[in-house]
Specification:
By secondary structure, this protein is α/β, with parallel strands linked by helices. The protein has helices spanning 3-9, 13-17, 20-28, 31-50, 58-73, 99-107, 129-139, 150-162, 183-188, 205-211, 238-248, 275-281, 306-314, 316-320, 325-339, 343-346, 348-353, 357-371, 406-418, 444-454, 456-469, and strands at residues 81-82, 86-88, 117-118, 123-124, 143-147, 166-170, 176-178, 181-182, 193-197, 216-222, 252-257, 285-289, 300-304, 375-385, 394-402, 423-424, 426-428, 431-434. Bound molecules: pyridoxal-5'-phosphate.
């Protein structure tokens, strides 16, 4: 059969439009859209025919057009259950939010707000007033500014303070934060020259001091948030750096990465640097994320000296990096939890960190019951993640599903990902591992439902057994 004959076998556009399934699509979606997708599909089929493939049946064509149209409708961004054991998983959206935070975000979403309107004076205001006092109160700083995310905050500061000039940073802190993004490369976009001093494992105060020139505008400290160098190391404390800065009239900029307000050693974790400690040590500007250990929506928070914050606020990049009203409202609500002393009860990230082992154990056992023979519970470790506490972990109980072949494990992991909501575990060799720690109590039902669906026979056997025993 030649190509022409094959092409002629394809259904016409009119024929497709008269198909029952396509007619139904046209009732939900605009006819032009469906028509567009029909043309695209026919074009694809003609291309594959000319490459030697045989023409699909009418039914196959209708099916593919239907699923393509429906795919447009199913939102690609959806809730997933995090059973990976990494509490702050950047790929899974970092911090889940508190109920009050969600409520606050909702409240400003479906209406106008006084975002940049001063209700007392009846004229233009600043979106920053809603949060600045709160941040000053919590951290002891004199001024504060909130932007889109932490990386943009540091970029803004270097642009405003050191464009065309030099900023000194320890070589051991010139880090990559994941996803291939390197702090020094982001910061160079500011037009500042990063002068790296010291070696990977050792930097001394004299290294900084010798690098200071008339072109130096700031000393930068970056918290090595996602790795730890052990063995022979030497660093400079923030206090020493501040003292050096004072002698040379240079501000110390402190990128904390995660940044937190609480004492993480209470949970058996290493100390994560606290924002208020950096402020009281004399850092001129402190930078941290809203959605890491703080447990709020994505944001970049900058606190510090009034005069420097004012400079940042006036810089054109402040507009390019500004935060939107919804996340601003959410961040205020999250910060209020800290102010009211209820953070550990209300903020999901902190609740997950503080979750007692007995509760994790109880949930692991429930999952095990549904899984039956191929599964077992073993002691394991969860991590905080999200660029914080690289050398610490939290004790947990892991539900391990051992299968005969690695392919079967990947198959099971895929089925769990296809469940709605998707359940994300981790695959290690012949095992699929589920960590109950980061599964929020309200998501528990989704996991047990997925396990019941995927392991129906085991579940039935179990109930039967339970019946006979009782
Ligand atoms: C995570 C991190 C950043 C980037 O913060 P985002 O909020 O993701 O932009 C910058 N610096 C350090 C040290 C970090 O850990």
């Amino acid at each position: 059969m030649n190509l022409e004959t094959k092409f002629r076998q394809l259904p016409s556009v009119d024929k497709l439009l008269s198909e029952e399934h396509i007619k139904k699509l046209c009732q939900v979606f605009p006819r032009e859209l469906v028509l567009d997708l029909i043309h695209q599909r026919l074009e694809e089929i003609r291309r594959s025919i000319s490459q030697g493939e045989s023409p699909p049946s009418l039914e196959e064509i209708v099916d593919s057009i239907e699923s393509e149209t429906r795919a447009l409708e199913s939102s690609p961004l959806q809730p997933v259950v995090n059973a990976t054991g990494v509490i702050l998983h950047t790929n899974l959206g970092r911090a889940p939010l508190s109920l009050e935070t969600i409520e606050a975000m909702n409240q400003v979403s479906n209406c106008y707000s006084n975002l940049e309107f001063d209700l007392d004076r009846g004229r233009r205001g600043s979106r920053q007033v809603h949060i600045e006092h709160l941040l000053c109160q919590l951290t002891g700083a004199k001024a504060a500014l909130v932007v889109n995310n932490n990386a943009s905050g540091v970029l803004l500061a270097l642009s405003a303070l050191a464009r065309g000039k030099e900023v000194i940073v320890s070589r051991g802190q010139a880090i990559e934060i994941g996803g291939g993004f390197r702090i020094p490369e982001v910061l160079r976009q500011s037009g500042a020259k990063l002068v790296e001093v010291g070696t990977t494992n050792c930097t001394y105060l004299t290294d900084y001091e010798q690098a200071i020139t008339p072109r130096t505008k700031a000393l930068l400290r970056v918290h090595s948030s996602n790795f730890k160098i052990i063995g022979f190391t030497q660093g400079v404390t923030l206090e020493e750096l501040v003292e050096l800065g004072q002698r040379h009239n240079l501000p110390v900029l402190d990128d904390l990465g995660s940044g937190c307000f609480i004492d993480t050693t209470k949970f058996g974790l290493e100390p994560e640097p606290r924002v208020q400690d950096s402020v009281s040590a004399g850092a001129a500007l402190v930078f941290f994320s809203g959605d890491k250990l703080l447990g709020g929506p994505q944001a970049g928070i900058i606190v510090g000296k009034q005069e420097l914050i004012d400079k940042l606020k006036r810089h054109p990049l402040a507009r390019a990096a500004r935060i939107d009203k919804v996340r601003l409202a959410g961040l205020v609500a999250t910060l209020l939890h800290y102010l009211k002393g209820e953070a550990l009860d209300k903020i999901p990230v902190l609740r997950l960190i503080a979750m007692p082992l007995t509760e994790i154990e109880r949930r692991a056992e429930r999952w095990l019951q549904l899984l039956g023979s191929p599964a077992l519970i073993i002691p394991g470790e969860s991590v905080v993640g999200g660029g914080s506490l690289p050398a610490s972990s939290l004790p947990t109980r892991l539900v391990v599903i051992k299968l005969k072949a690695e392919a079967k494990v990947h198959d099971l992991a895929r089925k769990l990902r296809q469940h709605r909501p998707p359940i994300i575990g981790r695959v290690e060799k012949n095992s699929l591992i589920l960590d109950p720690r980061c599964v929020l109590p309200e998501e528990e039902e989704s996991v047990t439902q997925a396990l019941r669906l995927l392991f129906p026979s085991t579940h039935l056997d179990q109930t039967k057994e339970a019946d006979t025993i009782s």
